[in-house]
Amino acid sequence: MSETKSGDEMSFSIDKIYASSEVFKSCIGIFLSEFENIERTLVGTEEYWEGVSFENFIGVRDDLRAEIKEFAEELRTYDEKLRTIADAYKEAEDKNLEEADRLPDNIIE
Hints:
- By secondary structure, the protein is mainly α.
- Helices cover 76% and strands 0% of the residues.
């Protein structure tokens, strides 16, 4: 979980990845909640539309709903992949630390 960064080194923090994932999940929830608010408002305006205009309005709304749901699912998938990467990194780091603890203290001498 090194935080040092010099030259071409990459800084990686499992805790930061998990924290980012939690923020990401929260943002997805807020995003979907706000879309539901917008959708309720749109449903409330249905009475203003007639004939072809109404059909177009419903079509656009339904297309938008599908695209928003798909986008939210892609965001969830991204979050899952982020957690999977962090889990794999943590598991490897824990295994390396466990193996290192088994080495004798004077192995480098």
